[in-house]
Amino acid sequence: MTLLNNTHSFTSRPRTPAACNTESETTVRPRYTVAPAADASAWTLTVALPGVAKTGLSVTDEAGVLTIHGERTWKCPETWTVLHRESADASFSLALHHDGEIDVGKIKADFAGGILTVTLPKAEALKPRKIAIN
Fold first, then answer.
1. Strands of 1-134, DSSP E
2. Boundaries of domain holding 48
3. What pTM does this model have?
4. Which residues, 6+ apart, have CB-to-CB distance to 100 below 8 Å?
5. CA distance 49 to 29
6. Is the C or the N end of the chain the one with fewer CB within 10 Å?
7. pLDDT along the chain (134 residues), means of 10
8. Contacts for 123-129: CB closer than 8 Å, 24+ residues apart
């Protein structure tokens, strides 16, 4: 399968001192891997989306482009004073082109613990077939 990464560039802002309610201005390409499934009938796309809630996540496939978008946001409680924050609010975006080798109607996605697992079934034309001998 050929998956081409369409996200060649990303924008980010310089780190600023810790603040509670900063607006998200950063778009980051998440880490991902693509591996064949054990039975060779599909590919498995695994995407790391730390801090993203299921409600802030979308997966779409349109015109041969699989797009994953996620938002990481955190609201600081009013009684807290933030001294340091290791991760900023950010948008995650990943666009992967595929060349029609995927059965789009059967794509499945699961999300748990900040890891998105997308099963990309092979199109029927690509699956191995047993040919009867006469």
1. 3-5, 27-28, 32-36, 42-48, 57-62, 65-72, 90-98, 108-112, 115-121
2. 3-7+25-75+88-124
3. 0.71
4. 64, 123
5. 10
6. C
7. 44 40 66 88 91 89 91 83 77 88 90 94 76 83
8. 126/101, 127/41, 128/40
